[in-house]
Write a structure and sequence with these properties.
single chain, alpha+beta, Heat Shock Protein 90, five-stranded antiparallel sheet, 3 helices, kinase
Length: about 140
Amino acid sequence: MSTRLEALPYRHVLTLPSEPSAVRLSRQTAERALTEWGISLRHPAVDPALLILGELVTNSVRHAAVLSPQVTVIYAAGADCLAFAVHDRHPYQPPLYSAVTGTGSGGLATVMELTLGLGGTAVVRADADGRGKSIWITLPL
């Protein structure tokens, strides 16, 4: 996919406490945003996207909350692309593609299997100060 994230016309940012309820709220917000942006919840990429989103927020809540009292989700979309990022202030950057090679397991392996199966991309971007990161998922629509 060659879509530049900065060029996507639709954006929404949600910041929540790093608590289990963040998973449900981030998915509900995604559904509302997609509907407002004219993306059908029946589109074949939507259910996997919501599952990926839920897994990433769950990972932030479970593993980063000790250093990151908040998790931020950035939603973006365009005519042919859906993107979202989950950001926390924990410095650990998971090796996304090790899940594909068989050395990963659990939720991150599911994230990567779904992302790549849909023809999407995944990338970890460190914060400028090195004390946090965002995991960006981009999926074609």
